[in-house]
Structures are given as structure tokens and as C-alpha cells.
Specification:
- The structure is a single chain.
- 42% of the residues lie in helices and 13% in strands.
- By secondary structure, it is an alpha/beta fold.
């Protein structure tokens, strides 16, 4: 299948796993000093990563992660220290290079403990940039990350991709039902679904108040106007009145969890607040390196960090997982402390419950 068709298919149905073969791959003509990068075995990610690395010689280690994208796999316990250590020990990469430095995607920091990987494999972990296209510049700068490299953004391209990922499967269900009951409604319903999905992901977070009312009202008026101009009957008008509200409810069911800039509205820690214990902080700056929202600022002279933008926190837990001094932790709405080990040990299932235990790595078995 041509690459662009694969991209289109996997973008439209990105919410289902798209696994590719794990293992060690060559990008360009890597040698013994070439960088070693690791990613999850999500086919779309791997292919985009290889395209982004054109002109770069590197070793690419594809770890088994259930065919899920890096951030979801790391948050859900599918890409963890266990998978990384096992991949390092079974891929033969150690025989191909003279160094022991591994570059992980920054968004893997929610599930992969850098210090634990070193202890169990003797490979030092660095967390690279958020976006694959920044990797060549990151590697050329010897691992120095700019602010833009470490912060997640919700670009126009990302918004349209997410709109398509929601609209495509919903449209299939709508089209199947319409073809059985009201064939003439098939194309209008599919068009409404894609149009409303685009509106939600393009403007929903930019509406200050009453977002559902504004988007739903506009969609309903447009739908009714289209039916009126087409000369539809009472049944069509009723459908035009009800369909936008139903579709909007589905599309916004977990809008926050479908964006990289808001914590999911369904997971256990939605009311958690990140807290910094300055007495424990010794200026390793791993939190600064891995936070996708740039919540931290370095205070180089004092060798501590400043939690300068805690209002940006999406509660991914990457900073808590990576802090070697346990200087960061969450507090719930009642003021109870959530220990760092809880985030390291338990991950999120599909219902947002932190019940997915991560197995410890058995070095001999790995």
C-alpha cells in the first residue's frame, strides 16, 4: 500500500492499534558512534520518524508497545521500563555501538523511568524532543533542547488529524444506519459529522464560556438551514434538530483527553495538584526536561527548579516519575499526598483508573 494511503488510513483510525514489527532498524548508514533512538511499535509513528530522520544516520530501536502511540502507551503501561530494558538486551544494539546512550521520546517519560533503565541495563537515558521533526536539530546540538522542542502544542495539523480520527469511525456507524433506514440522509449526516468534528477541534477550546451551547447552537442552525433549503420534510427537520446535539455529545465526551493540552476529564487524578518540595530538589532538572507543558523554570544558580506555571499542568505525571529525589508529588482535592511510587507502579486503563500494575524487570529474564 502506498505511504500516503497508509497515512490516511491510520490517521482516520488512529484510535485502534496499528502495530509494526519490533526490533532494531537502520536509518541511513549508522556506525558505532551513531545515536540510538527508541520509539513504540505504532506504525504511523515509526514511519513518520524515519521520514523526519532523512539525512541522519541513526539506530532505531522499535519497542513492543501494543501498536499504540508513545504517549498513550507510556501512560497506559504498554511502554515502560520493562519494555525498554528488554528491547535493549534482546535487540543486539549493544554490539553495534561503542556508547551506551539512549534517546527516548519525551512523551515516554510518563511510563519509562530513566534512572531505572540505567540501573538495570547500564544505558543512560536522555529524553529527546516532543516532535519527531525536531530530532535532527536536537541531535546536531548534542542533545540540547530548546523551549519549543520540549513543549507540546496543538497545531492546526494536529487539530485536523484529531477531528478526522473522531469523525471517521462515527461516520461509518452513521452511514450504515442511514443506508438501512433513510438512504437519502447518508451524505448529509456524514458531512455534518466531519464538519462538527472540525469545528470542535478547531475552535472549541478557544470559546471562553458555554462552549457546547455556542458550537451546538451554530451547528443546529446550519443543519436546519440546509434542510430548509433542500426542501426537506418534517422528519428531516426533526433529524436536523436532534443530530447536532447527539453528535456534539459524542465528540466532546472526552474532549480534554483527546487534546495534548488538557488533562482528561475521566481519569482518577483530574483534581490532583502538582506540588514541589524544594528541600528535596537538588537541581537535576529532569522535570524541566520532560514536562510537556513547560511548567518548570530552571534556577541555575541555586540548583533548584521553580514551579512557575503550575496552572498549565495536565497531570501526566512525567515530572514525578523522573525525579530522582522524589521532590515532586501530587495532592488530591482533599489534600492527600499521592506518592511518586504510585505513579511509577500503576498506570491508567481505558476507563481512566490507575489500576494497571507495571511488572518489575527481571534482569536475568530480560
Amino acid at each position: 500500500m502506498p505511504e500516503f494511503l497508509k497515512d490516511l488510513l491510520q490517521t482516520a483510525f488512529r484510535m485502534v492499534p496499528w502495530p509494526t514489527e519490533p526490533g532494531l532498524r537502520r536509518v541511513g548508514s549508522p556506525g558505532r558512534r551513531s545515536p540510538v533512538l527508541l520509539t513504540a511499535n505504532y506504525d504511523l509513528t515509526v514511519r513518520r520518524l524515519v521520514r523526519a530522520l532523512r539525512g541522519v544516520d541513526a539506530w532505531l530501536l522499535v519497542a513492543p508497545a501494543g501498536g499504540i502511540n508513545v504517549w498513550c502507551a507510556a501512560a497506559g503501561g504498554h511502554l515502560t521500563t520493562h519494555q525498554v530494558v528488554t528491547a535493549l538486551k534482546t535487540s543486539g544494539v549493544a554490539e553495534q555501538v561503542d556508547h551506551r546512550e539512549l534517546v527516548l521520546p519525551q512523551l515516554a517519560a510518563t511510563g519509562v523511568e530513566g534512572l531505572a533503565v540505567f540501573r538495570r541495563s547500564r544505558w543512560r537515558v536522555r529524553f529527546g524532543p516532543v516532535r519527531a521533526q525536531d530530532l535532527p536539530a536536537y541531535l546536531a546540538a548534542n542533545g540540547e533542547k530548546t523551549d519549543s522542542m520540549r513543549r507540546v502544542v496543538f497545531s492546526l495539523h494536529d487539530r485536523l488529524e484529531m477531528a478526522a480520527a473522531w469523525a471517521a469511525p462515527i461516520s461509518i456507524v452513521l452511514a450504515a444506519g442511514a443506508l438501512l433506514l433513510r438512504p437519502a440522509w447518508t451524505l448529509p449526516l456524514v458531512g455534518l459529522c466531519f464538519g462538527l468534528a472540525a469545528a470542535v477541534f478547531l475552535v472549541y477550546d478557544r470559546i471562553p464560556r458555554h462552549r457546547k451551547l455556542v458550537v451546538g447552537g451554530a451547528a443546529t442552525l446550519a443543519s436546519l438551514a440546509a434542510v430548509f433549503l433542500a426542501g426537506g420534510g418534517s422528519a428531516a427537520h426533526a433529524g436536523a434538530l436532534l443530530a447536532p446535539a447527539a453528535l456534539l455529545g459524542i465528540l466532546t465526551m472526552d474532549y480534554a483527553g483527546s487534546t495534548p493540552t488538557e488533562g482528561s476529564g475521566h481519569f482518577d487524578g483530574q483534581d490532583w495538584k502538582i506540588t514541589l518540595d524544594l528541600e528535596r530538589c537538588d537541581g537535576v532538572f529532569r522535570c524541566w526536561e520532560v514536562c510537556p507543558e513547560a511548567c518548570f523554570e530552571k534556577r541555575e544558580a541555586a540548583r533548584v527548579v521553580d514551579l512557575a506555571h503550575d496552572e498549565r499542568c495536565v497531570r501526566c505525571g512525567a515530572c514525578v516519575v523522573q525525579c530522582p529525589q522524589d521532590a515532586l508529588f501530587f495532592q488530591d482535592g482533599a489534600g492527600r499526598r499521592i506518592e511518586p511510587e504510585t505513579l511509577r507502579r500503576f498506570k491508567l486503563n481505558l476507563l481512566g483508573k490507575r489500576t494497571v500494575g507495571v511488572p518489575a524487570v527481571d534482569d536475568d529474564a530480560a
